[in-house]
Amino acid sequence: MSLPIVAIVGRPNVGKSSLLNCLAGRRIAIVDATPGVTRDRISTVLPLGEGEEARFVELVDTGGMGIEDTDNLTDHVESQIDFALRAAALILFVVDARAGVTPLDKHVAGRLRREDKPVLLLANKVDEEELTLESGELHRLGFGEAIRTSAKHLIGRHELLEAIADHLGESAGAAAPSPELHLAIVGKRNAGKSTFINALAGAERVIVSETPGTTRDSVDVHVEFEGRPLVVIDTAGVRKTKSLAGDIEFYSHHRAMRSIRRADVVALMIDASLPVSQVDKKLASEIAGQFKPVLFVVNKWDLAEDKAEAEEFAVYLEEEFPEIRYAPLSLTKAIDGTNVRETIRVARQLFEQANARVSTGMVMTAVRETMKLRGPSHRRGTKPPKVFFASQVATAPPTIVLFVNDIRPFQGPYERFLMNQLRERLPFAEVPIRLIFRQRDRALPPR
């Protein structure tokens, strides 16, 4: 179900991203004093009201109008603004109350009048109650009385939310769409993450450029795929931490890492034309450490398929990424959409595996069969290692607790062996499993 879009627009550095964070009640967009930080459309679902009476809109932040992008992406940024304006049911026009009306504000106002959409004028950065507004000057912009706001100090938030609700009325969504999964696309810079997402969305939802580092923030793209909603998270391209240049890249890197943590499934995108790098391996380590289901998305496969067979490349990845060697492989060419939709289907299968639950009987059978195949080694003269009881206690990741007579023999190599055997014998073939060992002197008493 699509929600009405409320677009936040204005010239650079008037506080649009801060306003998005303020209304959402959490930090979503990167906020920095550098003009032009926001390039893509950053969006979030915003509730209007509380409880069962709440209605919902999609709140969209946009890049600054009139900015000359330092990486020659001005046309791309303007295109993203155009998309947001065309789709908007309501526009929030933000000006800086402290700076007054500038020529660029007047330019933005003229552009909005041509859109013929309802507009709320916001005088932002009213950080002091005694700050006087040039009401006559603001009126000449043509959008009526300005709402005084301070995204930094939450001034005017309640009034603004009420104004949005009043303007949209019953057109606001009665329920927020509940995505079945969040899929994060992570990888090095210029691996093709944004191209992949645009191919899936069927539109230029995020900026694509040959310039490395185009995406600066994590962008949630809401997509309906085969009748079910999902959120695909585009992330900033990751590179070595010591190579990060300034605060913006630092926060972009931090958001990419956070996207892994909040994702249900992670797609690790590998550029088929380049060797696996330390950055790729560091990402894999982060994903494994978070116990996230992951699949390899080898993009630009057309540039490598004459050099290696798919099976050979799969072996190569297993050798390079031993900690996630269970991850399935998808070979894509995102620029023309090859295998993009099939990749989403694989991600769904991983989501289902990670959320599967099996009976205690199945777990105990798998453990006994594994122990019969090969038990843990132990020192001569010590009691043989025993598993008294084992059961799945959680999903996402599948978590199995084993009560044993001595933890030590089960640690290290045998733990990895046991985990691989359980992956084969239980419906968790392609997802990480968490094993927890608990030591007991004797078996649990029957219930």
Number of helices: 12
Rounded to an integer in angstroms, the radius of gyration calculated over CA atoms is: 26 Å
Say how many strands there are: 15
- List the helices and strands in order: EHEEHEHEHEHEHEEHEHEHEHHEEHE
Task: Kindly estimate the percentage of residues that lie in beta strands according to DSSP.
Answer: 15-25%
Major sheet? 6 strands, mixed
Which fold name corresponds to the CATH topology of the largest domain? Rossmann fold
Q: Overall pLDDT, averaged?
A: 83
Low-confidence stretches: 31-39, 206-216, 243-250
Task: Tell me which CATH architecture of the largest domain applies here.
Answer: 3-Layer(aba) Sandwich
Number of domains: 3
The CA-CA distance between the termini, in Å, is 48 Å
The helical percent reads: 25-40%
CATH H-tier superfamily of the largest domain: P-loop containing nucleotide triphosphate hydrolases
Describe the structure.
The chain folds into 3 domains: 5-171, P-loop containing nucleotide triphosphate hydrolases (Rossmann fold); 182-353, Rossmann fold, CATH 3.40.50.300; 360-439, GMP Synthetase, Chain A, domain 3 (2-Layer Sandwich), CATH 3.30.300.20. The model is unreliable at 31-39, 206-216 and 243-250 (pLDDT under 50). It is built from 12 helices and 15 strands. By secondary structure, it is of the alpha/beta class.
